[in-house]
Amino acid sequence: TSAAGAALDLQEQAALACSVGLFVLGVAYLQPPLRLKERRGSSLVAPAMASLLFLQGYAAGHAGLPDGAAWVLCALVFWLQGFAEGLHRLDDAQGAVDAPARRRLSWWPTVSFGGALLAVAVHPVFLNTAVWSLVRLRALRRLRSEQVTAMRRQVWRPIWSLYELGVYGCVGVWHGFDR
Questions:
Q1: How many other β-carbons are positioned within 10 Å of the β-carbon of residue 128?
Q2: Is-contact 7 63, C-beta < 8 A?
């Protein structure tokens, strides 16, 4: 029972560390004097917070450190949230979906696609992200400036491809990530 108690302590410490990280990032993102929201590189804060939230949920439900599949899912959450943040910023700027904006936004699903292909070595289910990343890239190529606001608010559109998360949820509930 002492090993179980130690694992629980590690689990509680990990969940607490994620909570503290989320709080600090949230305050630094929104409040002066830092107000990271208005600084260069701030588009990485929301993806970092999403990853911390994922890790906090993992720590709350599992004893011990995350395994390979959990770290891959954490990275995929980071990349998906990065894409969402990019769409959000494009909409807020009300700018044209010109070549530079499209290139910046397409970086996220491109990296997600490559990462998912590498992650197939951990588990074949990560082909799911590879497919949905291609769907996002295709939808992004067709995106026109006047569509950004509507597309951002319609979360079931192909540009979001949130079905990807549903597949992972079903796999996790019914089979876990064990081979």
A1: 19
A2: yes
Q: DSSP 3-state assignment of 32?
A: coil
Residue 103 per-residue DSSP state? H
pTM above threshold 0.90: no
| pLDDT tens string 34-80 | 777 777 777 888 888 888 888 888 877 776 678 888 899 999 999 99
CB atoms within 10 A of CB 129: 29
Helix ranges (DSSP H) in the chain: 2-30, 45-61, 68-93, 99-119, 127-142, 148-153, 163-174
Task: Compute and round to an integer the Cα radius of gyration of the chain.
Answer: 18
Write down the residue that tokens 């969402």 correspond to. 84
Mean pLDDT (the chain) is 83
Give the Å distances, CA to CA, from 120 to 56, 67, 81, 82: 24, 14, 21, 21
Q: Which two tokens stand for residue 49?
A: 């917070």
Per the listing, tokens 């990032």 go with 25
**Angstrom distances, CA of residue 71 to CA of 94, 116, 164:** 35, 12, 17
Taking the CB of residue 141, how many other CB atoms lie within 10 A of it?
A: 10
Cβ atoms within 10 Å of 82's Cβ, excluding its own: 23
CB neighbour list of residue 105: distance below 8 Å, 6 or more residues apart: 83, 86, 87, 90, 140
